[in-house]
Amino acid sequence: MNKLLDIFIKPFQGDNFVWIEIIIITAISATSWIYFYSLPAGVEANHFFWPLLGPLLIALRYGFAKGFICTLGMTAVLVSIMKDGGMLPLFPFSLIVGTFFVVMIAGEFRDHWQRSIDKYGIEHKHMQQELTSFTKNYHLLKVSHDQLELRNAGQPASLRAEINSLQRIALQYSERRLAHIGEPLLALFAHVGGIHVAGIYKVTNNEVEAQPHAVLGDSHTLNINDCMLQDMLVNKKLLSPVTFHAQHESCYQLCIPLVDTAGVLQAVVLAESVKFFLLTPANVVLLSLIADNAADLLSDELLTPVLATHQDDLFMRYVQRAHYNSREYALDSSLIIFHDHTGKNPDELDALTNHRRGSDVYWTYQPPNKKLCLMVLLPLTTATDSQLFITRMQQILFNALGEHCNDIDIIGPFSFEDSKHDIDSIIKIWGPNNDRMLVPSRANS
After folding, report:
1. How far apart are CA 390 and CA 145, in angstroms?
2. For residues 249 and 247, what is the distance between their CA atoms, to the nearest angstrom?
3. What CATH architecture is 156-294?
4. What's the predicted TM-score (pTM) here?
5. Which of 17-31, 60-74, 355-369, 419-433 has the lowest mean pLDDT?
6. In the chain, domain spans
7. Residue range 306-437, CATH number
8. Do residues 55 and 14 lie in contact, with contact meaning Cβ atoms separated by under 8 Å?
9. Residue 440 in this model has a pLDDT that exceeds 50
10. Digit-coded pLDDT (tens) for 162-182
11. Which of 100, 204, 285, 374 sits CB 3.0–4.6 Å from 338 for a disulfide?
12. In the sheet that 361-365 helps form, which strands lie side by side, from edge to edge?
């Protein structure tokens, strides 16, 4: 119905029709004036000046200018008719002046009203534009904030802090570690990967346990025969619909394996609901990195933070993991060696292990033809942070040894961002068994 009215009214809204309307109203007003002027003096219709309504209507509808033109046209028509009829001396000058005053007042009122409407319309439009701009800026700010959070979550310092917090929890328990770190681990995955519904399951001998150790969200279920899950158990790689190309559909949107440094599948995270716009390549890398480090926390062997001399193979696994993180994820790590060249300070060297950070790996050994050494691997640590670590250790040694603090040499830090052969050469020189130390671990290769 409104569309039909619009179609009917639209042709009458143009400027051309306005002038046609003015001409018609002017003609009607002039004709009515002649008609009412010709009526006898006692007729009741003469008591009101009806021709005033035409110019008044135009003034109220289109403003003073067009109302004045209508009145002027009506006056001209009236003068012309009265001149032809020889009645010009009877011209009602006072009525014409009164009509002009009424039209002027009505027209000015209409113009003022229109200016107010236009002003409020402009202000309303400006407010709409400001609101639209504010809404856009709000969404841009929200997206930027989310991206900044994800970017900060991917920074080495932030990742190290998160992994350290998980390690502190794992070190408190000798059994059922997954049950205790499961919920904070799922919360970290949800923060980085936008996971809504997921469960984490223990894996023993490549068999997934039926009961989850932690669940995120509602309506999570285990489908042991799911094609994506089975493929993940075989390949031990993180799978999502983007990377999974099987013919059959999967009920999971994300399958994350927790593979430790020794290559053992410790647990799996199965997610049914994920924010796909957060599954960027960078975030998938972060999920894999977090899963790999969390898997080490579930192994009694790999959770040991301070290694003995005979655990050189285990230390090399950590070194290979650091190489892998640097190569695949562009996350730097550092290697530092403390050497007691006098052989008189084994207790002070051993005391340095009491000041270790959460994810750092300490290895005490004695290389051939050298005194006792302490090799420290700082995962996810930049060269700048490594230098700060050295400064702190120098202060600790000075407090313990005083002027003899130089009895312990500090070699490093060596960055994993440099060539792999530089790290290997350092380990070859300072390792307890040169040939054995250069055998790379198979983990993460």
Report:
1. 34
2. 7
3. 2-Layer Sandwich (3.30)
4. 0.53
5. 419-433
6. 2-127, 156-294, 306-437
7. 3.30.70.2880
8. no
9. no
10. 777 777 777 777 677 888 888
11. 374
12. 306-307, 361-365, 373-378, 334-340, 408-415
